[in-house]
Amino acid sequence: xxxxxxxxxxxxxxxxxxxxxxxxxxxxxxxxxxxxxxxxxxxxxxxxxxxxxxxxxxxxxxxxxxxxxxxxxxxxxxxxxxxxxxxxxxxxxxxxxxxxxxxxxxxxxxxxxxxxxxxxxxxxxxxxxxxxxxxxxxxxxxxxxxxxxxxxxxxxxxxxxxxxxxxxxxxxxxxxxxxxxxxxxxxxxxxxxxxxxxxxxxxxxxxxxxxxxxxxxxxxxxxxxxxxxxxxxxxxxxxxxxxxxxxxxxxxxxxxxxxxxxxxxxxxxxxxxxxxxxxxxxxxxxxxxxxxxxxxxxxxxxxxxxxxxxxxxxxxxxxxxxxxxxxxxxxxxxxxxxxxxxxxxxxxxxxxxxxxxxxxxxxxxxxxxxxxxxxxxxxxxxxxxxxxxxxxxxxxxxxxxxxxxxxxxxxxxxxxxxxxxxxxxxxxxxxxxxxxxxxxxxxxxxxxxxxxxxxxxxxxxxxxxxxxxxxxxxxxxxxxxxxxxxxxxxxxxxxxxxxxxxxxxxxxxxxxxxxxxxxxxxxxxxxxxxxxxxxxxxxxxxxxxxxxxxxxxxxxxxxxxxxxxxxxxxxxxxxxxxxxxxxxxxxxxxxxxxxxxxxxxxxxxxxxxxxxxxxxxxxxxxxxxxxxxxxxxxxxxxxxxxxxxxxxxxxxxxxxxxxxxxxxxxxxxxxxxxxxxxxxxxxxxxxxxxxxxxxxxxxxxxxxxxxxxxxxxxxxxxxxxxxxxxxxxxxxxxxxxxxxxxxxxxxxxxxxxxxxxxxxxxxxxxxxxxxxxxxxxxxxxxxxxxxxxxxxxxxxxxxxxxxxxxxxxxxxxxxxxxxxxxxxxxxxxxxxxxxxxxxxxxxxxxxxxxxxxxxxxxxxxxxxxxxxxxxxxxxxxxxxxxxxxxxxxxxxxxxxxxxxxxxxxxxxxxxxxxxxxxxxxxxxxxxxxxxxxxxxxxxxxxxxxxxxxxxxx
Length: 953
Hints:
One of its GO terms (biological process) is neurotransmitter secretion. The chain is of the alpha/beta class. A nine-stranded mixed β-sheet has the order 24-23-35-34-36-37-38-39-40. The chain has an eight-stranded mixed β-sheet with strand order 31-30-27-25-26-32-33-43, with helices on both faces. α7 (about 405-415) packs antiparallel against α8. The relative contact order is 0.07.
């Protein structure tokens, strides 16, 4: 039986590796091998009684079926693979060596002669090529093995000489070699297993007193992996040319002594309760080996802009069966013939009975640079840390990746947990939603978006604070296939205009006002013709914009909808059944790769860039963030803005984990309401930028609130002082504080320090190590991995890396390498356990209270002042905000600036409040702070400002 999986090619796909899968047993294969390399395989099968032949040229092979079985020898196929130079997990040479167990035993004797019988206790064995040579009766009781003796077949216990002579006739009939070894009255069997860099030891105790230890009547438990066991696995692996898949079977006698019985290669049996993890480790290993062998000319890289098609045949036995689910395709096979589990993400819906070709997308999980392979895995199967020598860490995980949209996931949750609360909005009079009521509002909104003409990949801008409408729009956009464009509600006219035009937004959702910001006045200023608009908008300043939707104001208060706008409440109320069928039909055309959100970030030019994230990026990053410690994130208090990727992931999307809920304490940051929310909702987690936590510590009413329910705190969006973490755990108290490290470009998080839960020094001072299924490295300017402890650029790769910057291929190429690595622009070092220590930013942005501010942008606004000739904007440390902006300005020749407050007021009318510098200084020259080429060194400006502030203090 086999399955053929063809796959489609796409451009501009990151993190995806395309595989065409062919599966067959040896007996179904015809093979032709060529001296110039390569083989042609024909698979002969029947479908509804009609013979079908599949032909293909494999690029890589996984063999999990015994080459030699009862009365059958498939060694010719292995020879053909070697002839055609087709790579495999274990080498073809190793597969060839393992065709005969006496040959393996003879090779193992080399290790025993070198280490000694005590250090390598290989059981004594006699080999007889045929029965005629068995003229000397061995000591009894003994075990005679005829041929390969798979699963106990051909393995006979001989108790005395009479039985021995009787059995000789059976051996004569078999026309096969045999081996004899002493029978060990065992206490238990022990299986040692190696999958790549993962090692494991299992003890198997028989329940039935069956000396063959059939796994159907055994108790299996994992035991500590001793250094002795590890040595044996390493020695066996090296002996046969570097086995990545191998196992050693031991028997432990009643006196406690252990004997090595046999060694298995890639056909090894997987047993125990943790087989799912073993399956995933084999899948990771396969992708790593395919990277090495299938892309030798690309420095062993897997992720490319236009991924190649790799054909992977998997040879299975006659008894193997498969089970399909709509979420993943999992291999569920009989005990000994269990091949491996490969998490395929289906592009087309699967039918359990269908055997036609289907499309799959495979996520690469364990891609290791070949130059650092020996030292690049920081945790082995027994979870004991292994010291790294190269600054590369991959966090292996068995947590599945989800390949559907955020909106489709909400539909699943609403069906399973309809009455479970998912959101509470304290700033909207404690407005709450269950999964079912939230889905109803989302789908009502989604159907109206369809009626308004929104198509897949249209952009819908959301210029809102933390409101229920903001959250609903995230899911409605996902349900329709629209891209939600998140805009800071503090942005003023020109900032808003740029964001809308940058990605050609078709719609805008806004409030009448945000605090003192009159949003309606701003929008009428940039679209003067709006007041006379009937129907779709036709704006000269924003040609793409067709619809504006106005949400309620404070406390749910609605106003008369101005001309040219739709009322959000009316849209929800009128959202009917007219487009329900179309909404459901759209789901078939949406998948995990459908873009979900655009978040604005910026580069050294100061112009914001539109980072595009997919449903797959955001849904899975949220899942892996929550599954690190599931009990900690069940009740989240989220005061951080959701226009920021951190707030969207940790707050809005937190409900994607079943029965989790999020409470937003206020629509805008409010320390008092945050503390009150933690107490009233008994929140288990609080997420936010350091400024949120600092304000709680400094609040005069803090001790009036009981926040003892907090088990977890995540500090992100800005660097954190270790003293702050210690103070939070001691004084609030929060049981565990974790730093989070990430960027908009990788869906908010790539590392967390919570993994060092019992190591306070690492948890306080590092930004953590990679989240599950992610890779991190410290690299030089050429992308080469640096030794542990050496400073370089922090880079990350994995499922959460953005699709790219919208309509900006040049900046995308600068940020994401052809091999899929995200260049963060941050400098750091990695220790020998994979923990990363942040040093500084290569970019010159300033993080004010967790919000990125780019000096060049502010400088450009300053230069619009009629009296300013030159401006330099930079950051300096601040106890509350982490950093604040400073501006040094030089007047134009012959001009005079009366006072710095005039400059601040000038900026306040043009930019968001957090972009207005706290400190402004008028200077006559920048010469003392420039390089020989005239470039201003901003770090010197910072040093001078800090020194001046300390003198003043």
